Amino acid sequence: MTRQGPLAQRLSAAVRSATAVETSGIEPIPANDREGGPGSSFTLWFSSNVQFSSLTSGMLATAAFGLGWAQALLAIVCGSAVGAAAIGITSTFGPPKGVGLLVQTRLPLGRRGAAIPAVLVFFKACAWFAVNSILGAFAVQTLIGTGFGPAFAIVTVAQVAIALVGYGFIHLVQKAMALVLPLLFIGVSLYGYTESDLGSGFDAAKAGPLGFVGAFALVVAIQAARALSFSSYAADYTRYMPVDTPPRKLFLYAFTGTWLGSVWIASLGAAIGTIAFIGTPTDLVGQVLPGALATVTMLALGVSTITSSCLDCYSGALAWLIAGVRMARWQAVLVVGGLGSAVGWFAGQGDYWKSFENFLIILGNWIAPWLAVMLVQRFLVPSHDEDAPRNFGPGFASWLLGLLAAVPFMSQPGVFVGPIAESHPALGACAAAVAFLTAGLIHCALTRNSRTRAATPTDDTPKEIHA
Q1: Quick check: is 425 in a domain?
Q2: Model-level pTM?
Q3: In the chain, which end has fewer C-beta atoms inside a 10 angstrom radius, N or C?
Q4: What is the phi-psi region of residue 397: left when phi exceeds 0, alpha when psi lies from -120 to 50, beta otherwise?
Q5: Rounded mean pLDDT, 309-330
Q6: How large is the C-alpha radius of gyration of the chain?
Q7: Angle between the 329-347 and 148-165 helix axes, to the nearest 10 degrees?
Q8: 222-241: per-residue pLDDT in tens?
């Protein structure tokens, strides 16, 4: 029997710790159980954005909305920056309190009020789980030459298994994928960029009534919404970090990882969109990529989808608990996996493109005002004022009014088109921005008294946020 050196011992201990099944739920993480550094946020969010849904969101820019590649790239850069900033900021919410962002939502929205976005996050997670399971199943199906059913089972079981083990294992998997995925995607990137029409111009016929401004704004909105949808999860993956984790470093790592992964793969999707309109990963094989490269790409897409969707399964389970459902975390993981699998199974039998586009836009509409309330609460409301209202707090009214203000601007063809979006299609991408600004301004006004009281000396001491 050989003795392990110090480095091997530390590595072995780290792997054992990461693969131990997590027993915590939504309660605050004790200080002596905190570990890890901000760098793990880079690998987690980079890996999570190197996936097929990033590719398809970029492809919409050129293949569906008619932007030239350079125009699409600029829109993708801007939209990704907005979403990455949201993830970066919300990642910093985890270490100070040791709880996820949805638990902290109870402060401004109240305990009953916070249950509503928790339920929405739960269903959002199930929907993303379904979308990614479909995409992953298409990739696995093409890779191993089996039917949709077996491929779908492989993908969903793998996603649920990672989420069942929990926080440490998710970070370990994402660190490994941050090394593996770039190697797998480099071939399709070289081929896609060199074979596509990077000099393509704006196609007015594809843009239709949107025009150039509307198409550009819509791509920014879709790209921002895709990354923004992760912001409700971000603190779930930093709540085990020490209380003194530097927030600026944490923001920088999370922002950079999200932005780089998103811009790289979405711009690749926009490039491929100048060649062909890809409906599923299978179409990449038949219409774009040659044999050996297609095989490697299918492997990359299948793996990346699994590593991304495990976040939906894990955080969706926590949201279900925050909504007030009494069960163990592992049971909630099975609920998300089961419901998401059922939705994905039925949706996977048809074309998902228009649903995918509408789904991304709708996410931004309700998450944006919620995020605005949380930012005002974090940076403007005094930190000692931490008694969560039993029912509904002022933040609930701010969130709801912000959402209502956006209704006239909402544009989901086939679902709902607001009067302003109908008469001015180019403004249909502004709904999330309107909701964000309205909710933020209203919550500033409603919490003005709290900020005034903070200027007066008080003997009150901070209270914990109880799950």
Answers
A1: no
A2: 0.86
A3: N
A4: alpha
A5: 92
A6: 22
A7: 160
A8: 898 888 888 989 999 999 99
What length does the chain have? 467
4: left (phi over 0), alpha (psi -120 to 50) or beta: beta
SS3 (DSSP) at 319: helix
The token duo for 366 is 């309700």
CA 360-364-370 angle, to 5 degrees, is 145
In a domain, 262, yes or no: yes
Asked if the structure places residue 278 within a domain, the reply is: yes
Query: What are the angstrom distances between the C-alpha of 31 and each of 28, 160, 413?
Result: 9, 28, 49
Q: Which residue has the tokens 């820019």?
A: 61
Question: Which tokens in the block code for residue 402?
Answer: 């912000």
Residue 25 has pLDDT above 70, yes or no: yes
What is the Cβ-side half-sphere exposure of residue 81, based on CA atoms within 13 angstroms? 6
How many structural domains is the chain composed of? 1
Residue 431 has φ and ψ, to the nearest 5°, of -55, -45
The pLDDT tens digits of the residues spanning 31-56 come to 888 888 899 999 999 999 988 778 88
Say how far apart CA 39 and CA 95 lie, in whole Å: 14
Would 455 be classed as within a structural domain? no
As given in the structure block, the two tokens for residue 319 are: 């949201």
Distance CA 302, CA 341 (A): 16
Query: What is the C-alpha separation between 326 and 310, in angstroms, rounded?
Result: 22
- Per DSSP, 35 falls in state -
| Block residue for tokens 């302003």 | 420
What single letter denotes the amino acid at residue 228? L
Which domain, by its residues, includes 176? 35-351
Distance CA 78, CA 74 (A): 6
